[in-house]
Amino acid sequence: MKKQQESTGKRENISRLTFHVSRITFYALSVLLLICALPSADAQRISVGSKRFTESYVLGEIAKKLLEDAGYRVEHKQGMGGTIIVWDALKNGDIAMYPDYTGTIQETILKSASPMTAGEMRSALAEHGIGMAGELGFNNTYALAMRRTDADSRKIHKISDLRNHSDIKVGFTHEFLDRKDGWEPLSHHYGLQFKPRGMEHALAYVALNNSEIDLMDAYSTDAKLVEYDLTVLEDDLQFFPKYHAVFLYRLDTDQAAIDAIRRLEGKIDEGRMTLLNAEAERTKDFAAGASLYFSEVGHSAVEVASESFLSKLARWTGRHLMLVGISMVIAILVSIPLGIRASRPGLLSQIIIGVPGIMQTVPSLALLALLVPVPMLGISPTTAIVALFLYSLLPIVRNTATGLQNIPTPLRESAAALGLEPSAQLTKVYLPMASRTILAGIKTSAIINVGTATLAALIGAGGLGEPIISGLALNDAEVILQGAIPAALLAILVQVCFDALDRLLIPRGLRLEEASAGE
Amino acid sequence: MNESKIALKDVEMRFGDVIALHSTNLQIAPGQTTVLIGPSGCGKSTILRLIIGLLTPTAGTVEFEGESVSQANILALRRRMGYVIQDGGLFPHLTAAQNVTLMARHLQPALQETEIQSKLDELCELTRFPKDGLARYAVELSGGQRQRVSLMRALALDPDVLLLDEPLGALDPMVRASLQTELKEIFNRLGKTVLLVTHDMAEAGYIGDSIVLMREGHVLQQGTLDDLRERPSDDFVSEFITAQRSLVQL
Prior knowledge:
The structure holds two protein chains of two kinds.
Chain A: H1 2-13, H2 19-37, E1 45-49, H3 54-69, E2 73-77, H4 83-92, E3 97-101, H5 102-109, H6 118-126, E4 130-132, E5 142-147, H7 148-154, E6 170-172, H8 174-178, H9 183-190, E7 197-198, H10 201-209, E8 215-219, H11 223-227, E9 230-232, E10 245-250, H12 255-262, H13 270-283, H14 286-297, H15 309-342, H16 347-361, H17 364-371, H18 381-405, H19 409-417, H20 422-452, H21 465-474, H22 477-505, H23 508-518
Helix pairs in contact in A: 1-2, 2-15, 3-14, 13-14, 15-16, 15-18, 15-20, 16-18, 17-18, 18-20, 20-22, 21-22
Chain B: E1 6-15, E2 18-28, E3 33-37, H1 44-51, E4 59-64, E5 67-68, H2 74-78, E6 81-84, H3 96-107, H4 113-127, H5 143-155, E7 161-165, H6 173-190, E8 193-198, H7 201-207, E9 210-215, E10 218-223, H8 225-230, H9 235-249
Parallel strand pairs in B: 3-8, 3-9, 6-7, 7-8
Antiparallel strand pairs in B: 1-2, 1-4, 4-5, 9-10
Helix pairs in contact in B: 3-5, 4-5
């Protein structure tokens, strides 16, 4: 409420300025307020992370509820990414805890080739300032799954049976393809020779069901194993390590918070976890999976509150606008001076145009991944803003430079001959004359930015990409569209706003000139 | 005291290997209209651009009231000169009135609207520009009106010197003839030092108190029309005058 009043007050103060300035300033200010508000967490605030698959989301929701019952204000950073991203976030303090699996901790985090006891893991984790709670009670190991009918007709029941079937089409998650306990060592262990394709986990189920692939990696508590009537091949040569679910937490976390989470120890077996996962996927709501746990356990009478769609949409859109708004304001402030410099001939100008050009060719996902390990960035909206900022530079820099270069020499000379200082020539003549081109660059940047910002959800920065990624995890087009449609509408809205802005910002004389040139 | 308003002393202008103006000495008398004339590429526009500092001479000095023109004083000097080019050089994002008052408002942000308005009225009357055209943009004005606005802009700060580079070059003959008459009247009325570039001998003879005839980067002769006609310094001078006169007589 207080923030709303502040924003309204700001809005009134600048009402004398033109529409566009007030609008941009308003966004920038409210966004700055938001940023300032974010780190000013009180002692009772705590963040829980989760990885990008249903079970991790559900466990995150359960932890959130337990912590809320213990009196904390909890933010659940849902589906932040794969193991490395979430682990980095935990080490950096972006989150206080998240659920993981003993096998993953040993192989991916501690990078140990030999099996470790729980005690060995705890002391190794403690070196990173991280603690490990007790096992929740289920083993969600990797498994290889096939259609039951297909497996029966080919008489494949164990992984070693696969050796005699070279015609099997295989699709694995990228993580499984890369893991130390994943496909490569598995293929050596069993002497298998397939050429697997990498694909999203949820999509692989559909591909398997449609017989586009015949074999995939799965988790032993996946709800879809039942849904699609799949069979899990027996790990007859004991390749897969145990994947007991545990919570990892920062050792500097409140003891009360740790105690709250430890109440889950030994409470969830494979059957229950599969049910919770199935409930979440059936209702398309991770909180519903968590609710089922509490209603079954009778642990709390209160339901885990499911956020209404409109409130979620408002949250996603608000965050999306914040990411786009901040990155665009900074990009404009940086790009226009760079563009002005680049409008003059010389090597420096080529560098100024060239570097953002190279930036543009880096795939956005790769850029995000490169920025995450940078100190001060990590898993945060800041990282997303930096990436979006870098992507927004080129169109504005290039258009500013081009717009200025295209001013006819006689007009440049007229401005100089009047006796205007170079700075006044720029502000009173050159920039207004280049305004159309500069605005077009800003518009291009903003529209690209709105689309690219959906990727911010991959690093837990939220926005309209959140439902898109959840939807991928759930294999649910409806959920994907909950993010994709608003993002598309937002891009159209940006286009419309800029068209309106053109009329306000581009001097009438230039618009008349263009109209008469078109005749 | 130096008698000339503007003087070129051994001024040379090279662009790489091309010499646009060979070493030249030239005196521009105060309060008179001097016309620079010659075929295309003879260096007449170059002289104007050197005086207003759009070009820096590769040798020699340009003097304004005996003071050498340099980077240090060019801004102040430009504000004492008005510059009009062939297409008017009006800024397309500004109305006619905004073009005319741009510099005055820039130099004196506190200037009263009434003062600006009375200055505009005065200039409109002088240049016979219709007041209802002041709110128009360059694209909405005819060629002749654009030149009137450009002249208003050049006169807005009441400069000592007017530099006009083919100001009537892009106009059709009827408009051109009437503007020649008007320009001559305006120059006589204001008594400013005027330097006008043209390639039209009739225009030069009609408007100019003094004519400077140029060819291929050299000044061939400076004098009145009668001087040039009666006492040509070489054959080209008489050829140039005769060729133009015979055209006029057709």
